[in-house]
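subagent[fold] <- orchestrator: predict structure for attached chain, return tokens only, no commentary.
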Amino acid sequence: MIGISEELRNILEAHTEWLSSIEATDKRISASGKGKRADLSFTNLSQIDLSQVNLAYANLSNAYLSEANLSQANLRNANLSNAILSDANLSDVNLSNANLSNATLLGAQLTGAVLNNIRSGKNCYQVSGVGRVGRLVSYFLKEDTIVCGCWECKQGNTLKNFEKRVKLVYGKNGNRPNNRFYQEYMEAIKFFKRMKKLLPQ
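subagent[fold] -> orchestrator:
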């Protein structure tokens, strides 16, 4: 993992100051305020450690973030359109309201990620209010990746492995049989399968 350069550190500090200025004055996000909103579009940030960094509202469109560590980072309302996030660590990251249109997430670790109201074009479908605690279940079609709370499968968070997990936990012969939760998850899985079939070949 690569540390943060002085140039990047200055950009992050200016962005933090900009965010504080916006919040303190209750100005609209488009207002200038103090500091400067981070524009890291088209920047190579591969293998950089950005864990726990606050990049809310930052422009990361077309950024190269392959194998970057963004765990527990705040990326709410960030623009990640066309970003390359292959094999990035996005565990416990806040991506609420982020723009992930055409972003590449192949192999990305998304365990515990907050994905409320993300924009992803036709790549991500979500079902909310599922199971015991009313979870949000997100499915990234192209990557065949399920994100559901802190669930993580060593063989990959694929739809097939998620279905196996649901049967193992809530199925008739599962660890904690519960017909309602089982049916809720299975209906979500059926929906994801239907959407997957609609992907252009």
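orchestrator: received. Logging for downstream: The CA atoms of residues 27 and 91 lie 31 Å apart. The longest strand covers residues 124-130.
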